Aminopeptidase N (Streptomyces koelreuteriae), 447 residues
Amino acid sequence: MAVQQSVGQDPYFPGNGDLRYRVHRYELTLDYRPAPNRLSGTARINAIAGRGQLTEFQLNLADFRVGRVKVDGRTPHYTHRGGKLRVRPAKPVRAGAAFTVEVQWSGNPRPVNSPWGGLGWEELEDGALVASQPVGAPSWYPCNDRPADKASYHISVTTPSAYAVVAGGRLLTRTTKASTTTWVYEQAAPTSSYLVGLSIGKYQTVLLGDPGPGGVPQHGHIPAHLLPRFARDFARQPAMMELFQELFGPYPFDEYAVVVTEEELDVPVEAQGLSLFGSNHVDGERGSERLIAHELAHQWFGNSVSIADWRQIWLNEGFAKYAEWLWSERSGGRSTQQLAAVAHRLLFSLPQDLRLADPGRKSMFDDRLYQRGGLVLHAVRCALGDDAFFRMLRGWAGQHRGGAVTTANFTAHVGRFTDEPLDALFDLWLYGTTLPPLPSPRTGGAV
């Protein structure tokens, strides 16, 4: 489906992205040397101008040396300062016309600064990984960095042969020449720039479960010494995939990969078709199983169905939080009602000043947003009943597959599954700050 565009610049990150055009496809050719942390790249970006003639435009790109820029084969005037590559084509691009931008860049990639610390390309002790949410993508490639501008990706990475390269998407080829290997991945599904995942390290690759005919291939990429713990911790991921396809609809991508790094990560990170975990998330005791469910659920909610801007982030995190509760309920753990009660008690003990539908940049990743977001979905489920609720969820994931959405899109969608207006429910949970009473189901809490 066509991607819905934001009405204006993202108020949380007004310097990111350019509304004057949209990208259709990125073709990235990268060469990375881990020891000196040296990256050189070429990007071919196929884009379409918006409603006005394009006399200039910008890409987001961190502090690299830019070697060459071309627009439709001609050299434009350009400047590169403060994370912005501003380009003035030699000949303006007509409104609605397709155009191609080529950029060559090189340097030592490092995370970009943010209120949450460094984001994006992270050099590890032996390798590298990319964790870009929300604004880290320009740390390693030039992009129109806003979540609603979704494009397909072709990514080629050359690195020393001792290293494996894992990216979201389908591995097309792996070619070794002398001491280097080139890995080529294709992600055909529309992808937000922050969701382009990449990991470079020394990994063993294993198949999780047997996908069977028409199933979803699931691979793990793990340091060899962590394999025994990984085997136990991720053993139930294929069952999660089965459950979520039942509840949310078909898995939206070709395959799913998980990477466990040698190093610890504060939290796992979702990317399109790929999730990254730290060694601290693998304990051999299934201690992080709820996080495995959370990251998998993001493939539907956040990745396939993306947000139009960062004000809508609860549509990513609230859905993934509720998926944790659904997995618990269906796998013999606590019920959704029990977990909703735990979340409600927690929120009741904390300041009640967060407005879910527009939390503000400082509170984008506040745990209260996750918990309250899960409770919104539980409240909707209690109001609709299970049959209508899960039809609603499958419809949401299916109708907006590959697109970008807002809170208003969601509330309108829910309204189609009930004869009783839910305006009061949404006013309290999404637009108010005071914690409403704990929702309880009409007829039991089991799925």
